[in-house]
Structure formats: structure tokens, C-alpha cells
Pseudouridine synthase
Amino acid sequence: MSDKPSSGERIAKVMARAGLASRREAEAWIEQGRVSVNGQVISSPALNVTPSDRIVIDGNPMPRRERTRLFLYNKPRGLVTTHSDPEGRPTIFGALPKKLPRLISVGRLDMNTEGLLLLTNDGGLARTLELPTTAWLRRYRVRANGRVDQPTLDKLRDGITVEGVHYGPIEALLEREQGANAWLSFAIREGKNREVRKVLESLGLRVNRLIRVSYGPFMLGDLPEGEVKEVETAALRAELGEKIVQDSGADFSAPLVSDEERMPRKRPSPSAPPRSAPAPRQREEVTAWGREKEPRSQQKKRPRRDRSKSGPRPAYPRNSK
């Protein structure tokens, strides 16, 4: 373990590459005292580690690094791109199949934006693909309320500044008009927060549907809504290119890790006594006067009346109307 920048890599980066969390999440875990290195709990992410260091998270050894994987996900509307939402809204990770490894999103899509979202188990790759220097083109189909002409959209090729924020060159094409709405094709490289919506609002358009159809070389295609598809390793490496592979530290030679080998969930404290099952409740009966009767199991059985000794039951005259 070393604090020299030239020795090893930052621990948060190593944890992210292992697919445990994003760098930001890993740094938060460290500050919460959940991580130890070589038996010593650390409180600062400003630490470099090497392959010989033993890293433990929540009492569990950090699993070995898994092969870099990438998944295409057709995100539905109404899901938040986060692992946990403080407002309790449904998240994409809660909707994903449970058989998948622990994944990180490459960037985010707004709650009401749908379409292609890239997911990976490699935090280094996710960070590299999000960098502005990577400059992958992101294409959207947009339905917006209002009117706009193509010459106005062509001016976006030089970029635009909205409310003090400058957005780089944008490729926009008016596809068709449908009633009060217009369908547009929109392509950007920066992916700033709510960029498509804010730029179109500055042109007098209100976006009411936004679908991402591609991210770099990866296409949404006919992937059904809510479904996930993995990109094969050979195709993934070819599409990324050697520069991104080197910059991200992606590893395509590592093995695939089974569910049993991945780090288990944080377990409850062993000192907490186990909860015993509640005793079965006896059925209680209430009389017409509101007083409880004894349970049937405790009531004394009364002997049946012997009618042979008391004679027949007397007949009572019926009232005639």
C-alpha cells in the first residue's frame, strides 16, 4: 500500500474497475469506513493500492476483476438512472433482471427519456465513455410541441448558448410535422444535463417525447422496451478501438465471474438475536353482550340431556292470526 501517485492506482479506481461501484460511490464507501486495506480501515480515497494489497469491503474480500462487459438496455419512461433514489422512485437497476452482474450506467437518461442506455461492469470504461474528449455521437428522436423550420435548425451546427451555458455543434433535422407536434432527429456529442430539452426550449419547442436511438457505434435497433442485450466480447473490443481500451484499462482476458464468486450483500450483525416466530394466537369469541368467552379448548364439556328420563318435550300451541 502506498500513497505515492507513481505506485499502483487509486483505490476508488480499482474498486470501480472491479464492477463494485462507480468511483464516486466507492469514495463514499471509503468515507463511511466500509473499506479496509491490509487489515486497516481507511477513511480517505487518496490512497494508491497494488495487486498485492488485500482490499476488504463490508467484511468481504474484494472479488477478483471480471472481464469487461457491456450491455444495451432499452430504458422505459418513468425510471430513474440511479441505484437508489431518495424520493423512492423506481430505478432502472431495480427493473433489470437479477441474473446480471453489478452494473454501472454510462451517463444518464432523464426519468422521462427512453431508449438506449449503455450498462457496464467496468467503472473505468464507463468513465472513459462519458468524457467529452471521447466525443461519441448520441442520436435522439424527438417529438416536440410547436413549429420550427430547417434553416433555424441548421444554425445549431455552430453551437448555441442558452442561459449562460454553451452547447457545441448539434445536428438537427426536421423529419415531419404531425398535428401540433414536430418530429426531429437530434445528434449531440457532449451530452450536458438536459441538453436536448433546453436547446429546443430556446427555439420555442416543448419536448414531449425523447428517445435515444444510438450511442457511438451502438444502436438501439429493434431491442424491445425494458429488455437487455449483451455485446459480445470480440465485437465490443472492435467497436471501442484500441485507444479507448487503453485509456479505460478494459480487460478482455479476465474470466467471467459467477454469481457465487461476486461479493455477497452486506450481512446483518451476528450479535443481533434471531427473530422468533410469534406463537399462534388462540381464537377468541365474543358474546352478544360484548364479553369474551373462554377459548373452546378451555371450555368444559356439558353432558347431553337424557330425554328418555324427562319425557317428551311439551307441545306449545301456535298463535293463530
